[in-house]
Structures are given as C-alpha cells and as structure tokens.
Design brief:
Number of helices: 6
Distance between the termini: 98 Å
Number of strands: 0
Radius of gyration: 33 Å
Largest sheet: none
Order of helices and strands: HHHHHH
Amino acid sequence: MGKIEWFRRWFPAYRKHVDRLQQGMQQNATKILFLAKLSAGFALPALIAAGLTRVAWRRWFPVVFVGEMLWTSALMLVGYYATEAIIQRVDRSMLYLIIGFPILYNRCGISNEWISHTGLPEAGVRLKMEVVKERGLT
C-alpha cells in the first residue's frame, strides 16, 4: 500500500483532495515540475507530490533536468554580472580613498598622532621629523 492509499484510508475527509491531486499531477506533471523548478521554493513539494502520485521518472526527469540547467545558468549569469558591478564599485571606492585621503589630510589638518595610531607609524614619525625641521627645532 502506497502513501496515497494510506492517506486516503486514514483521512477520509480529504479523499476528494487527494484524488484531485493525483489526477492533476498525472495529467500535468511536466508543466508543474518545470514551473516549480524555475521557482524558488516549490521544487521540493512538487517532487514530493510527483513521488507520492507515482509519476514515472521517464516523464519527470528530463523536465526537471532542463529546468535545473536553465535555473543554474540564470543564477550563474546573475552572479557574474553582479560580481562585475561590485568589482567596479570597489575599484571606484579605492580610487576615491586614494585621492581623498591626501586632500583630507591637507584640508582638515589630520594630526600626526592620528596617523601614528592608525597603523602607519613610519608615516607619523616621518611627518613629525618634517615638522621639527621646518620649525627649526633641531
């Protein structure tokens, strides 16, 4: 006895629904599985329904395979172009940082202590020595 017959026997109130599911799945298995494969969350329930209604694998496997190839190709294309866009934005941001830091340093008067605390001790020491030489403190 299969799961459908077991469900029919133990839940007689849902007998009409189970019969309608079985008939609909047998008639439209390829359409249902193809559309379910292209959607985000319906693939697993559709495959379970196909298994419960005992749809022959020769009917559903080619459809699921083609759907999976299309879905995977679409995700690969989206990932490729999204990565390109992210890389362009990161490159642009790095350019802004490289150009903007010296401007901020000159205009806003970022202190040498701030530079030495940010992990650039050599630059901080070098700048301090230049200030000492300019003021003639040596």
